[in-house]
Specification:
By secondary structure, the protein is an alpha/beta fold. The protein contains six helices and seven strands, in the order ααβββαβαβαββα. The protein has a single domain (about 1-195), classed as Glutaredoxin, CATH 3.40.30.10.
């Protein structure tokens, strides 16, 4: 068991390093981003409970979008995401988590399994959605938009990649999996949007 876990961690670290290098190459295309301003609100997703939810409910709020996984080395970021949400939700911040299984099969469970894990282990209060594909041939249209039309183009490198959307639906920042949700890199940009 210990050998398998070490091998998985080694694979995870190698894949993350490759993803981080790709992530750094992502350059902002502000003209492209401005053209698609507000497009995020056109998407309708399913919550982790299977109920439809229009992303237009986030109009007027800064929104942090995160692809998540339950068995990832970055899974403890759920704690920091919840702390971030608790700190800024009263000022308008919203967080939308989209579980995905594309990286190391680290989100193999059903939506019910994912919800149970997140609520039991992390007591999440921000929005958790149904599992989707964030990369590859079955990529969900939301992530196709985020990775090809948002102005922050490029494949999702790993679990816990993050996109920050302003109050008007413009994607204004993208952060890699290793970006700490409560670190200055992210909180500084959120505070600027809330000012």
């Amino acid at each position: 068991m210990g050998i398998i876990r070490k091998a998985k961690l080694g694979l995870t670290e190698a894949m993350f390093a490759a993803g981080a290098a790709l992530s750094k190459k992502n350059e902002v295309n502000s003209m492209q981003a401005e053209k698609t301003k507000g497009r995020i609100y056109e998407f309708e997703m399913n919550t982790v409970d299977g109920k439809p939810a229009k992303l237009s409910k986030y109009k007027g709020h800064p929104l942090l979008i995160v692809n998540t996984a339950s068995l990832c080395g970055f899974t403890p970021q759920y704690t920091d995401l919840e702390a971030l949400y608790q700190k800024y939700q009263g000022k308008g911040l919203r967080i939308a988590a989209f579980p995905a299984n594309e990286f190391g099969a680290q989100e193999p469970g059903t939506d019910a399994d994912i919800k149970s894990f997140c609520m039991t282990k992390f007591a999440l209060s921000f929005d958790l959605y149904s599992k989707i594909a964030v990369k590859g041939p079955s990529i969900h249209p939301l992530y196709k938009y985020l990775t090809t039309e948002s102005g922050f183009n490029g494949d999702i490198p790993w679990n816990f990649s993050k996109f920050l959307v302003d109050k008007d639906g413009l994607v204004v920042a993208r952060f890699g999996p290793d970006a700490n949700p409560v670190g200055k890199e992210i909180t500084g940009k959120i505070e600027a949007l809330l000012a």
